[in-house]
Structure prediction request, 358 residues.
Amino acid sequence: MSDLSTFVLGGSVAGIGGGLYLLVNGFGGYRRAGRVADTATSRIATLAVGEVRVTGRVEPAELTLVSPLQSRTCVYYRARVREGDDRHERTVLDEERAVGFRVRDDTGSLRVFPRGSAWDVPSTFKDADGFGGVRPPGLDLRRGPAFEPATPEREDLVARLLTVRPGHGALDSIAGRASAGRREYEEARLGPGDVVTIIGTALPFDQLPDPAGADLSEGEGSGGPLAATDDPEIAADLAAARAAGTLETDPAEAWGNAAIPGFGIGAPVRPPELDPEAIPPALADAATAERYERTFEIDPGELVLAIGPDRPMLVSAGPPAAVVNRGQERFLVGLAGAVLAIASGIVLAMGLSGGLGL
Prediction:
């Protein structure tokens, strides 16, 4: 087999694979666009229980994230770094995280628990190393932790400015090691003030099976707050506990110390129940306790937004019209991918049968 025939056949196989990928991605965009277009926007102040679509601006709740590649404050990010040359390429960073946040429209705000969500957020940063491995000007690798308090104290901000922090994990490797080739960087994120459209299930806060788990999302395929109930044994145990009246319905009793505002950051507003040999944390002062209560406390009957039992919550950047247009554009690209796959398949078949004379 000549080099030309090998090149043609290899290109045909690559064309089939790339075309099918674009097609699948296009149909995903089409389904998302249809779901957004077929659901009317609900005003937060008059929200009803069930699947709803809300649109508003992102507001931080208790915690925020720091994006890995540009060190921006956000509530969701997806970051990837690839390196290599024309022959070999590898992914050195592939990270996706989200924390709970609020969305506000002109009638009020709503708490969002993002675990198990599908995210439709375009890249906000996409660049590559320049000649000689020069880093792109927009790159600002995160040097501290991924999580921050949404309203940090002044003393914490001062200490942060005066503290030199090492890198973490893959970021430390990226910052301190010469690359094996040209690096490409890509980051998508949602931050405070960004417009967002969400389709999810509105339900009372006390009906969330796992509020702590529902408030954080890390990686793909992490499931959601209702994912465990898909297990027949767990579902049967829950049903038996409800029937016997032994399933705790009071969030404060069910979650223990985790229900105390400020406990997770070492400044609880009231004494936690600890082992007698444990060193009790210092309680928050009155002003801090009032702020924590206001920030962390959610009324058991307050409606929140989370995934439903049947479909994941969809969180999309932008107003509904922009989300629909983005999905339709992906669908058109997917159709072009289908044409590419068909044409590549024809070329491959002709090449294997000798019809191209190679």
In short: The radius of gyration is 25 Å. The chain has eight helices and 15 strands. Confidence is low (pLDDT under 50) at residues 220-230.
